[in-house]
């Protein structure tokens, strides 16, 4: 499921203490077991829409403003064994994207629903792929432009020693085909992949060609690939890294300024400690590089961020979570320290799986049980207890000239055994501050807590949220903001999944 980034308002502001005014829990549904898959689709016509799936049973649940279920529709038109479900919501309807295989054909499909969860029309076939095996992982990826007017379906059909093959299919919001392109892109080696696909509001497609020194190694070569909405040809530009090594690369489109941001933590030496942040800005309108910067972290920032690490290893466990573009051309980046241990062994960022190409099927596979392009918890061979950690949050602000303005740390320490659903954080944009929600341990209980940060980097510390009913465990990293100060947060109650509407 594609993580949705909450846009940050850039009106500057003073934030005071806030506390939750109201928390409303949905009624428990015996079908909503702890292990269900779910997606908080959003708010439409005052209804709150949530998808739920377990094995081959799929429902759309509709709640009113008081979190009372007013409709529950089983999607019995879906074939067996669908996978790779994605959702895109609009003010009065939403679209579900899914894949399934019948015989040797894999189908990429879409279907519309109204604000009451009722199917509108028949499913639409977006594309097909001939398969010589039974697929158990997604082939297609679905992304959308920031304004939701463009929808991009793409697949990477593998590579050989000399070329990559990629297919991009662009639709409008009504699923009308705009353009389909198959690209053959030159390759420079076996450890090279295509990644980080994005689509601009005007339909231009951007992605990266990256290469490492070996599998699960740092990236030492990178190129940006761009293609206009209605073009079959593409433009490839190499990016100079100037003897640094990258990982955890992220791409963000700045539609307001027609810029592309590429950013990553970097090291000066291969498989070494994180030294700072690499940030690169490409001017799409003039097709040229604007900035290519390396920001090294000083000892003061490292000391704040390090947790239990020594200073030189302070950022080795940090991974980028959100990037928010500002209208002035600057950006705010948020990263979280996360790692796992098993049998007393700590797994660092170089032990995790990266996207790999499988010669057995000719498609890129992403070895992540959580849907991330780079798996942070990729150790799958141990059947004992694995402890998951999610610690401090680092927030960095960069100006329009790609220079760091300020940095700050929200301190937290979280862990859980064999699951990470209760750790991590979610963000809610209040308009005058970004607020971070996460579980804090108090007397062996997880209590939903809140801290905010203002545009000038000041931390707003608040008390734990009020009106928290006993027995409910929040999963804040999967929350979705549905209003100016309203969010839906999934919860666990006695091994049942439910949902809380929080009004701040």
Q: What's this entry about, in short?
A:
This protein has a single domain, classed as Methylamine Dehydrogenase, Chain H. About 0% of the residues lie in helices and about 55% in strands. It contains one helix and 37 strands.
Q: What's the total count of β strands? A: 37
Radius of gyration computed on alpha carbons: 22 Å
Q: Indicate the proportion of strand residues.
A: over 45%
Instruction: Please identify the structural class as seen in this structure.
Output: mainly beta
CATH class: Mainly Beta
CATH architecture: 7 Propeller
CATH topology: Methylamine Dehydrogenase, Chain H
How many H/I helical runs?
1
Helix content: under 10%
Mean pLDDT reading: 87
What is the topological layout?
Layout lengths: L21 E4 L11 E8 L2 E8 L2 E7 L5 E6 L8 E7 L3 E10 L2 E10 L4 E12 L10 E4 L5 E10 L3 E10 L4 E10 L5 E8 L5 E8 L6 E9 L7 E5 L5 E10 L4 E9 L8 E8 L4 E9 L2 H7 L12 E8 L5 E12 L2 E3 L8 E3 L4 E3 L20 E13 L5 E7 L3 E4 L7 E5 L4 E9 L2 E9 L5 E3 L10 E3 L5 E4 L2 E8 L2 E8 L1
Antiparallel strand pairs: 1-37, 2-3, 3-4, 4-5, 6-7, 7-8, 8-9, 10-11, 11-12, 12-13, 14-15, 15-16, 16-17, 18-19, 19-20, 20-21, 22-23, 23-24, 23-27, 25-26, 27-28, 27-29, 30-31, 31-32, 32-33, 34-36, 35-36, 36-37
